Amino acid sequence: MPSGQILLADDDAAIRTVLNQALSRAGYEVRSTSNAATLWRWVSQGEGDLVITDVMMPDENAFDLLPRVKKLRPELPIIVMSAQNTFMTAIKASERGAYEYLPKPFDLKELVAVVGRALSRPRGVPTGAQPVPENEDIPLVGRSQAMQEIYRALARLMPTDLTVMITGESGTGKELVAKALHDYGKRRQGPFVAVNMAAIPRELIESELFGHEKGAFTGATARNTGRFEQAEGGTLFLDEIGDMPMEAQTRLLRVLQQGEYTTVGGRVPIKTNVRIVAATNKDLRVLIQQGLFREDLYFRLNVVPLRLPPLRERVEDIPDLVRHFFVLVEKEGLGRKQLDVEAMDRLKRYRWPGNVRELENLVRRLAALYPQDTITGAIVDAELDSQPLLAPQPAGKPGQPTLQASEGLSDAVERHLNEYFSGFRDSLPPPGLYHRILREIEGPLIGAALAATRGNQIRAAELLGVNRNTLRKKVRDLDLMVVRSNRA
User: Fold this and answer.
1) I need a labelling partner for 334 at 20 to 30 A (CA). Which of 205, 227, 228, 435 fits?
2) DSSP secondary-structure letter at 417?
3) Cβ contacts of residue 70 below 8 Å, gap of 6+?
């Protein structure tokens, strides 16, 4: 049976009662109070084996109290609760010495489990990280449960040098998370260097990462420092790591194993001291099966996996994100805007294939193109659904083109696009045309393949020439209905 005295501080009597009952049933002795002064008196008198406190107390903010508690009793574990649920709340709780941060509302079983872990941990090691910069703009926005898990994970990772693998769809904010890990972590005084593997020609990646000596290859007229050397003492962010060629993967693995590298054309090993954060929007396990990614490198990079949820999995964050982006564009000189209820509802019902990046682009477009102070649902509908591309047209409908018997798909697409562009006269369509066209084609193509194979996804994947896991992800992302027939 667990034992220990818990000091509980929360000015909400109902919350105190519920927590008191749950902890008492778990076998703990609980003393509760509604103010920080009483909590401080108990702690200073040597009472309690663990503290649970809300951030917002009527007489003092817990973040101001925590440093005094940790100075007096550095081994006393403190669990911080908060209904604010922001990224900075989690970070401040960590850097001020909290053992754990729990966003309200939380599961009582989770609280009891955290208490058990805190009381059973080895004593003699103070908790807490280095102070984080004050008065910083919040880099991550959202109060959903999905984002709370991200905040808590980041708070635990800040005081470490562990290698992190960030996965998520394009536009979910992978580089933003990597930058937050650096800016609020122990290496914040060092440089943050980002490298996009997909943007570098394959033959130049090794030189880009490790540098080269003069004369190492044709055109190498001088010594060039690589990104590892530029990031010394800081963080190296390897974005789109799935696009790294095998030769560079082998050299990167050697760096991770031995902590040193040589420049292209060089002979003297160079010691390196960088934290590696990698990111990808691909399934690296599929690439491993296809022989395109080294399994041993995957395990070296995937020490701490961190999955960023797509925007459609956290639609409750959209109002906060919209307000945040409107504030940014207002600082850039555009007028103050807001959305009406219908417009916000429309945004929540949209699937956001481009995720947070697509939402930010939409907000910037709304702020720049529309003079109204309040953006209506009709305006949002026009922006999200205007000029649908490659939409199937009913045969023979007056005023609309149809596919001619002798016309190929390429010709039909070209004709449709010419008419689409002409509709804008002297202006151009909204940005993102390439991806909008691909989305319009992708859904009907996959749907036709599934229909032809009577819903058999293995045969449909073979027909399309894609990996089965890729097809399943596309079916899920495009929200396609799959009807399986026994005749397949």
Assistant:
1) 435
2) H
3) 76, 78, 96, 97, 126, 127, 128
How far apart CA 51 and CA 39 sit, in angstroms, is: 9
As a whole number of angstroms, the distance between CA 325 and CA 153 comes to: 25
* pLDDT band at 224; cut points 50, 70, 90: confident
The pLDDT, as a whole number, for residue 355 is 93
Strand partners, 102: 81
**E strands, 55-160, where?**
78-82, 100-103
Nearest to 482 by CA among 439, 444, 451, 445: 451
275-280 sheet: strands from edge to edge: 192-196, 235-239, 275-280, 164-167, 304-307
Residue 58 in contact with residue 34, Cβ under 8 Å?
Answer: yes
**The domain containing residue 20 runs over which residues?**
5-120
Q: What tens digit of pLDDT does each residue of 337-371 get?
A: 999 999 999 999 898 989 999 999 999 999 998 88
Tell me how far apart the alpha carbons of residues 165 and 226 are, in angstroms, rounded to a whole number.
22
Give the residue from 307, 328, 352 where a domain finishes.
307
Direct distance between the N- and C-terminal alpha carbons of the chain, in angstroms, rounded to an integer: 58
Compute the distance between CA of residue 246 and CA of residue 251 in angstroms, rounded to an integer.
9
Please state, in angstroms and rounded to a whole number, the distance separating the CA atoms of residues 156 and 91. 9
pTM assigned to the model: 0.64
What gap in Å lies between CA 363 and CA 239, rounded to an integer? 26
E strands in 14-134: 29-33, 50-54, 78-82, 100-103
- Does one domain contain both 319 and 289? no
Mean of pLDDT over the chain: 84
Report the range of poorest mean pLDDT among 128-132, 167-171, 406-410. Answer: 128-132
CATH number of the domain to which 325 belongs? 1.10.8.60
Name which of 479, 467, 476, 151 is nearest 284 in CA terms: 467
Query: How many domains does the chain contain in total?
Result: 4
Looking at 98, 120, 142, the residue that finishes a domain is 120
Mean pLDDT of 25-47: 94
281 pLDDT above the threshold of 60: yes
CA angle 474, 480, 483 (to 5 degrees): 115
Q: pLDDT tens, 385-422?
A: 753 343 333 433 333 444 444 557 777 777 778 777 77
